Amino acid sequence: MNREAVIVINPGSTSTKVALYNRDGEILSHSVRHEQKDLEPFAKISDQLAYRLQHTREFLHTCLNENPLTVVGVVGRGGIVKPLEGGTYRVNEAFLHDASYGTYGEHASNLGSLIAFQLKDEFGLKECYTVDPVSVGNMWPKAEISGVPGIVRVGRGHPLNMKMTARKIAKLQQIPFEQTNYVVAHLGGGISISLVQGGKLVDINDALLGMGPFSPNRAGALPLRGVMKLCYTLPEQEVTKLLSSKSGLMAYLGTEDLREVLKMVEGGNQQAKLIYEAFVYQIAKEIGAYFAASKGKAQAIIITGGIAYNQKFIDDLKEFVGTLTEFHVYAGENEMEALAEGAFRVIDGIEPAKEY
User: Fold this and answer.
1) Are residues 112 and 173 in the same domain?
2) 154 occurs within a structural domain
3) 354 within some domain
4) Which of 31, 274, 277, 352 is the 20 to 30 Å CA partner of 248?
5) Are residues 265 and 311 in the same domain?
6) Up-side HSE of residue 331: CA atoms within 13 Å toward CB?
7) 219-226 LR contacts (CB < 8 Å, sep 24+)
């Protein structure tokens, strides 16, 4: 076995995934679950750093004692930072500042680069990395226009998984990644739908706040009059929390688990049936819009993320968009693999690290 390994860190809202990868793939992995009661005392996401770092160290200490490996790199999932081109970035002071202070938004993934930076010195490394942060995109200028001067459409989604999955489908179709033209939909707690052309996300919705279909707990695009009324009746922080984590399936049905929603539907719950149909319908419309943005030339529609495991949902979605072009399902997330591969591309000199 190749004994050189990179440490991969991927923080989520209630978990921290930690793994060791060599050039052949995963060696060991572990997901540390965080109870909500343990996270509630922290006012900001960055305040969780010491707590999550301790759990990460415990796993690494145990597995490295049992598996003699040489750690040659540390890579953490990048968070919400300024809009960036895709690639592997060296975590520098500017990146750490924006991730720590939530300059461009608060998200659990902001902790990935912070934990990686803390660990690099412990393993005698000069650098640590992040790959395709949440705000990565190469948005067409025309896609940034909102309709109101001064308000710019921004893309925040799941580029790490989307690009990795697109690479896999490109290999399957035997198309060079730089020549691909795909509509990619990541369907999970957040929903990202993008047009990926030439390996770049040229248009993508804001999956966190304000664009696209509603998700298991996010509002998506909304009628402006209702938003205006909401903003005049509640403080900004409450509106942000409502739209980014207390909306969608959760708001309508009291659960963000699609499996539970489908149980309600099977049990004859007419409200659940209506909301589920709207959920599929909105996602299908958004995919159709991005297919139109490709001028009808997309070589595939790719469905990924956790919701893609649900065959009932896939069948229903396929009724809307399955005849537009090739339809591929690659369920789950490839984020850990994508982080490791991105780090090794820089470590092995295949591509240079980018500067933030």
Assistant:
1) no
2) no
3) no
4) 31
5) yes
6) 8
7) 219/243, 219/244, 219/247, 219/248, 220/191, 220/247, 220/248, 220/282
Q: Which domain covers residue 108, as residue numbers? A: 4-138+335-347
pTM of the model: 0.86
Residues 341 and 315 in one domain: no
Structure tokens belonging to residue 249:
């399936």
Among 148, 152, 142, CA closest to 211: 152
Q: Are residues 102 and 193 in the same domain?
A: no
What residues pair up with 11 in beta bridges, in sequence order? 16
- 175-209 pLDDT, tens digit per residue, is 999 999 999 999 998 999 999 999 999 999 999 88
Dihedral pair phi/psi, residue 348, rounded to 5°: -90, 5
Distance CA 170, CA 241 (A): 38
The C-alpha atoms of residue 341 and residue 344 are separated, in whole angstroms, by: 5
Q: What is the pLDDT of residues 274-326, one digit of tens each?
A: 999 999 999 999 999 999 999 999 999 999 999 999 999 999 999 999 999 99
State the CATH number of the domain containing residue 118. Answer: 3.30.420.40
Distance CA 325, CA 180 (A): 13
SS3 125: coil
Helix (H, G, I), strand (E, B) or coil at 305: strand
| 296 vs 324: CA distance, rounded Å | 8
323 and 217 share one domain: yes
Residue 305, phi then psi, degrees to nearest 5: 95, 170
In angstroms, rounded to a whole number, what is the distance separating the alpha carbons of residues 89 and 132?
Answer: 8
- Helix spans in 67-109 (H): 93-101
Count of beta carbons in the 10 Å neighbourhood of residue 14: 13
What is the residue whose two structure tokens read 């009724």?
A: 319
Verify that 230 and 83 share a domain, yes or no: no
Give the three-state DSSP class for 317. Answer: helix
d(CA 53, CA 190): 25
Pairing of strands 15-22, 4-11: antiparallel
145 in a structural domain: no
pLDDT score for 135? 83
Q: What residues pair up with 192 in beta bridges, in sequence order?
A: 186
